[in-house]
Amino acid sequence: MTTASLNNPVSPKQPGSLFTPSAWGLMAVLIALFGLLHYVFLRRTWLFATTDSDWSHALIVPLISLYYIRIHQDHIRQTIPRVAPIGLLFMLAGFVGYGLGIYPIRNDMAQGYSMILALFGITWFVMGTHAMRWLWFPVAYLVFAVKVSDKIWEQIANLLQAIAANAATIVLECWAVFDGNLESVNDRGITIDLTFYKAGELITESINVAEACSGLRMLMAFIALGVAFAFIQKLQWWQRIALISLTIPIAILVNVARVSTIGVLYVYNREMATGDFHIFVGMLMLIPAAGIFMLVTWILDNIVISDEDEDETPPARKTDAQADETPEPPAWVSPTRVLSALVTGAGVTLLAGLAYLGFLSALRPDVVGESFPAWAGWTTLVVCTLALLIAIVAVVPALFRNLPEGPTGRPARQMALIVIIGALATATAGLKQAVAMTEVVLLKEAVPLRESVVKIPFTMGPWRLIDDQRLPKDIVSELGTEQYVSRLYVNTQMHDATGVDFKNTTQRNRYLADAPVGSMVRLHVAYYTGTADTVPHVPERCFIAGGLVARGGGYPLVTLDRSRLTRDIENSDYLATLPDGQTARIPDAEFTMRQFTYGTEDRPDQDMHVLYVFAANGEFAETAERVRLLAFNPTDRYSYYCKIELQPIGVADPNRAVETVTRALDDMLPHVMAALPDWIEVTEGTWPPAEPR
Fold it and tell me: Which of 124, 126, 377, 510 could join 362 via S-S bond, C-beta 3.0 to 4.6 A?
């Protein structure tokens, strides 16, 4: 790709200012437009960073990038000032990728990486190829602030959980040799069983190596920390590769120490092994991680003693007197040049936008509509792509010919800034217009419950509550919502509870021990709205994390008792009337659920089952992916989803499990749906209720 040479090289002995004061004003406009264009992603990243401790490091990543630029500013000042038109291709590719990430891909990770690609292209175009030797890293480093898709992250989690549990078990077994209180340590999958003495009694309790302790929570922070050490320190290329390759092993090592510490604390003070202190221990692990990185850096730096790279030596700074002697570049910014630069930036962006539209109409005609046929899409894609390449090769370099030469090449960079401003302004206006035409809502609003799920009745038909479980704070943090219930119900028609005092532990345990198969169901309901995350928490992860073995499953069709429902023909759904006269809207009387079959290693012949379905924006969905499509429909102003999970206790036969859950849903589902927002009311604007004036 052609690179336009603009000025004479700057003397490496006298690094000057990158921009004039007026150019810094242009830079401020550029930053504002860049932030406005990517506002949706930046807003969601802020929500992730401030609400999800897994990604709180995202707020620090940009500061590290700025620090890297700060310590290399003298090198950047002395670079040969040339614009690189090839950078525009990367910028435009980032714009297109960002649009695809919004729709139809609908993926935050795609949006984030596309934004960074656009920033990379802008930096390359404005600062030139020579300056990218120092600027590529701070731009690329921003990828650590982008939340990785849950599908990818869960695969990493499973591996790290197993490694952390196995290694921590070995460490705790060694600790048990010196600790008389700790009798034995065993691991089941990613659950660690500790047998220890407490108040003179030998007891066994389990530690679940959940994501918070597996290395998943701090993995990206550890990797980002290691990469920062590798590039901020003066290291050779092979030393940097060695340090970066050690980031994941160091992260695993530190997190094994974390799990082991939690295990030891569990023996002596269970409260210190859970809740806020448990999370605090995890944050403390950043200190030994930083220490290990510093030690490895010192070792690598002293393995081979070499002469200092001259290129790494900062150039001499100019004195104030020298700075005053530097002549200002002659006046060059004429209205004609400014207009030409703005039009060029707008023109290449329009061509990229038309190529994007052609791409969608050719490959996804359902997105664009019948008004733009596929043949027209292919034609538009080819023509606009060719025109775009011609513009970047010929038109853009022509803007920088015959510029008055200044000793620092600042006029060329000012022109480049104006081109980018034109491109960003056009892209921002185009995105706003596309959103207005398609009525897409980029930031969803929270929709409140009609009543808290905690108010789901203790008695529903023949089902009576016998256990209302409240989860520990760290597990609630992993669950991601405070609006949940996890309750055990018994069918009193199958197992008479007359005369049983459930407050009496002896009577309660005897009653549960005598319960016939299929008479007890655990109901778990969790409600989400206004969250940055788009992928719901599924029970498979919890059961596997608890040391259970996955044995398959399926997607059975569940049919409710229609005689207990009223058909709402107008809205194509059903209504259920509760004992108190309240009406609950049920999307369908026949829907698919996800059935997950699991068991234990010591009982391979004994299967257990859990069935769940999601209610998302007025519809049922059996998979997390379908929830993402429903609850984050581009045209919906509000979004919510609710996991409704039932586990028949002691039922091994899969068909009987489905039958038990179906009959339980006949009584329980109307009460659950009564607590959720009525989607008809939401779409009609009657819910949420208007704010009082």
Answer: 377
pLDDT at 412 over 70: yes
pLDDT score of 85: 92
DSSP 234-268: ---HHHHHHHHHTHHHHHHHHHHHHHHHHHHHHHH
Distance between first and last Cα of the chain: 61
Residue 111 or 398, more confident? 111
Reported as half-sphere exposure (CB side, CA atoms, 13 A), residue 370 has a value of 0
Q: What are phi and psi of 538, to 5 degrees?
A: -105, 150
Tens digit of pLDDT for each residue in 634-648? 788 899 999 999 999
pLDDT tens per residue across span 27-82: 999 999 999 999 999 999 998 888 777 788 899 999 999 999 999 998 888 887 78
Q: Which of 643, 650, 644 is nearest to 609 (CA)?
A: 650
Q: Which residue has the tokens 């055990």?
A: 488
Please tell me the predicted confidence (pLDDT) of residue 184.
86
Residue 42 CA to residue 387 CA, distance in Å, equals 32
Nearest-angstrom CA–CA distance, 325 and 43: 45
The whole-number pLDDT of residue 406 equals: 39
d(Cα 131, Cα 9) in Å, to the nearest integer?
Answer: 12
Quote the tokens at residue 305: 């003693």
Q: Give residue 533's pLDDT.
A: 60
CA dihedral 666, 670, 671, 677 (to 10 degrees): 150
Please give the angle made by the CA atoms of 593, 647 and 186, to the nearest 5 degrees. Answer: 120
The sheet that has 201-208: what strands, in order across it? 182-188, 191-198, 201-208
Query: Quick one: pLDDT at residue 86?
Result: 94
**Section 196-213 average pLDDT:** 72
Predicted structure pTM score: 0.82
CA atoms of 686 and 693, how far apart (whole Å): 16
pLDDT tens, residue by residue, 600-634:
877 777 889 999 999 999 999 999 888 877 766 77
- The residue with tokens 């604390």 is 265
Q: Which residue is it, tokens 């489905």?
A: 658
Q: Is the pLDDT reported for residue 3 higher than 90?
A: no
The rounded Cα 415 to chain-centroid distance in angstroms is: 37
Mean pLDDT in residue range 504-518: 88
Q: What is the pLDDT of residue 312?
A: 53
Report the distance separating Cα 344 and Cα 422, nearest Å: 7
Tokens of 478: 């992993």
d(CA 384, CA 358) in angstroms, rounded, equals 9
Which residues contact residue 553 at a Cβ distance below 8 angstroms, ignoring those fewer than 6 apart?
A: 594, 595, 596, 597, 609
DSSP code per residue over 482-541: S-EEEEEEEETTTS--TT--TTSHHHHHHHHHTPPTTSEEEEEEEEEES-S--S---HHH
CB of 180 within 8 A of CB of 126?
no
Query: Virtual CA dihedral for 623, 629, 631, 636, nearest 10 degrees?
Result: -160
Question: Residue type for 437, please?
Answer: M
Place of tokens 């049922």: 620
Strand 640-648 vs strand 573-577: parallel, antiparallel, or unpaired?
unpaired
The tokens for 226 are 């290691």
- Provide the token pair at 130: 């020579």
| Contact partners, residue 658, CB within 8 Å, separation at least 6 | 556, 558, 593, 595, 611
DSSP-assigned letter for residue 9:
P
The distance between the two most distant Cα atoms of the chain, rounded to a whole number of Å, is 99
Please report, to the nearest 10 degrees, the dihedral formed by the alpha carbons of residues 261, 262, 265, 266 taken in order: -140
3-state secondary structure of 436: helix
CA torsion 117→123→128→134, rounded to 10°?
Answer: -90
pLDDT value of residue 398: 86
Question: What confidence score (pLDDT) does residue 282 get?
Answer: 67
**Environment class of residue 400 by beta-carbon count within 10 Å: exposed (0-12), middle (13-18) or buried (19+)?**
buried
